[in-house]
Amino acid sequence: MKTIRVVAAVICDSLKNKTKIFTTARGYGEFKGGWEFPGGKIEEGETPQEALKREIMEELDTEIVVGDYIDTIEYDYPTFHLSMDCFWCEVVSGHLKLKEHEAAKWVTKDTIRDVDWLPADVTLIERVEKVMI
């Protein structure tokens, strides 16, 4: 099975006091409409952190600072294996403009489970909830 290596940004309102998390709904492809942590593929020669900064600039026209590593999610979809490095992130500049996603919203600890997360992303929710205020 083919492995796809990606990065995901768990963008929060503050790296110190995580009260809100930014989520996006895919705007294309097989998983269109599914909610996820934004990010994308790591290109050859990039570190995961460099890939994350580039992907968020490309997809959301926003500059981020990449904080602590959260986890690597390993998930088997029917046609590929996903290996997703996840990091806490915070907006440095920009307005999170949707360029590839169909929707976005900020969720809190109380509303994080109210969106229809993609299967790989849902496995990260419990860890994210534990550190949110």
Task: Describe what this molecule looks like in 3D.
It is globular and about 40 Å long. With 133 residues, it is of the alpha+beta class. It has 3 helices and 7 strands. A 4-stranded mixed sheet has the order 4-1-6-5. Strands 3-2-7 form a 3-stranded antiparallel sheet, with no helix packed on it. The chain has helices at 48-60, 119-122, 125-131, and strands spanning 3-12, 21-26, 35-36, 39-41, 62-76, 81-94, 101-107. 29% of the residues are buried. The chain has one domain: Alpha-Beta Complex (Nucleoside Triphosphate Pyrophosphohydrolase), CATH 3.90.79.10. The chain starts with a strand and ends with a helix.
Summarize this entry quickly.
18% of the residues lie in helices and 43% in strands. By secondary structure, the protein is an alpha+beta fold.
